[in-house]
Write a structure and sequence with these properties.
Number of strands: 14
Shape: globular
Largest sheet: 8 strands, mixed
Distance between the termini: 25 Å
Order of helices and strands: HHEHEHEHEHEEHHHEEEEHEEEEH
Radius of gyration: 20 Å
Strand order of the largest sheet: 3-2-1-4-5-6-7-8
Length: 351
């Protein structure tokens, strides 16, 4: 889906917009032209993804595709720089596209209010020159890694929690892939999350700046890769510490070593996702579908309060709140109990 009114003008029609950037010997006129001809896909528009998006759009990336499954909440405004109070309860992808359009109308912006999963990942990432990580969970990163390794698309892993974060570029056939770094999904409770550790709002912004700079190097052909090695950059803002750690390619890597696409080729996928930093659970149907929000709104309005747009609707009773999207996904708020979330979904959506 394209944001209405967004068109792409040739770079030469905007001679002054990028003049400070073209002055850099690392970019120059040729580098700026490459950026303008590039297509970037951003998966996730939280604190990291929204900072990445504004940097790419301001730098003149010619085409930017936004993917996010969620909607804006008030607590997001502490760290998610693309959104304002007027965006609360709007889909993040829609609100982000509107904001980015006002920043730079000379580029093309696509947005997708979808959950990236095995049913749509290859389609949504197709044609990208680079994929940038703005997600909050490892399972989605493993799926991105499978797609990018399979189709030889560079991507950048990035994450931030608490006061620290890390970032690593992944160039298939040249560097280690993400599963060289993290071979398997850790067990429950083994990773820090923003639910437990919180997030300092400057941490995602710094990591996003590093992520974008790596993207500029990749898109202009200037990121050096030697001896099948990549560098994981780790930073803690509170203590002002930075580490650069060499990561080698693993011959026994399940993905780039043995050629397995475990997350892309899964016959089923998890329907339940606990949303980071939220007392909420997402439920998504296994099969791709599209539901009529108009019909659902008419049905639910008989038993509770319903508010909706063409992208989603929110249904509230005295005890429950559920937000439903056109692809059948639903976010059940006020619980972390999977059984209860399934029950609410079945009761009101019935898919």
């Amino acid at each position: 889906m394209s944001a209405a009114g967004i068109s792409r003008d040739p770079l030469l029609k905007k001679p002054d917009r990028y003049c400070r950037q073209r002055l850099l010997p690392q970019i120059g006129a040729d580098g700026q032209h490459r950026l303008n001809e590039s297509r970037a896909v951003i998966v996730g528009l939280g604190a990291m993804g929204s900072a990445v998006a504004t940097n790419l759009v301001r730098a003149g990336i010619g085409e930017v595709s936004l993917i996010d499954r969620d909607f804006v909440e008030l607590h997001n405004l502490q760290r998610q720089v693309l959104f304002c109070e007027e965006d609360v309860d709007r889909p993040k992808a829609v609100a982000a596209a509107d904001s980015l359009q006002k920043i730079n109308s000379s580029i093309k912006i696509d947005f997708h209010t979808k959950d990236l999963n095995v049913t749509n990942a290859e389609k949504l990432l197709a044609g990208a020159d680079i994929v940038l990580d703005g997600t909050d969970n490892l399972q989605t990163r493993f799926l991105i890694n499978d797609v990018c390794v399979k189709h030889v698309i560079p991507w950048i892993y990035a994450g931030a929690v608490g006061t620290s974060g890390m970032v690593m570029p992944i160039i298939p056939q040249k560097t280690p892939c993400f599963r060289c770094l993290v071979p398997e999904l850790p067990g429950p409770g083994l990773l820090q999350t923003c639910d437990i550790a919180g997030v300092l709002n400057t941490a995602p912004t710094l990591i996003a700046s590093l992520e974008c700079t790596l993207a500029f190097q990749i898109l202009t052909g200037q990121l050096e890769t030697k001896d099948e090695t990549a560098y994981l950059i780790s930073a803690d803002l509170w203590y002002q510490t930075f580490d650069r750690i060499a990561v080698g390619k693993q011959k026994e890597c399940p993905c780039c070593g043995k050629g397995r696409m475990d997350f892309l080729e899964a016959t089923t996928r998890e329907m339940i996702t606990s949303l980071c930093g939220r007392d909420a659970i997402q439920i998504a149907p296994v099969a791709a579908m599209e539901i009529s929000l108009e019909e659902l709104k008419e049905r639910l309005s008989r038993i509770g309060e319903v508010q909706g747009t063409k992208f989603m609707l929110t249904f509230r009773t005295e005890t429950e709140s559920i937000t439903v999207f056109r692809d059948g996904r639903a976010i059940i708020q006020g619980t972390k109990d999977e059984a209860k979330a399934r029950s609410v979904y079945a009761r009101y959506i019935g898919l």
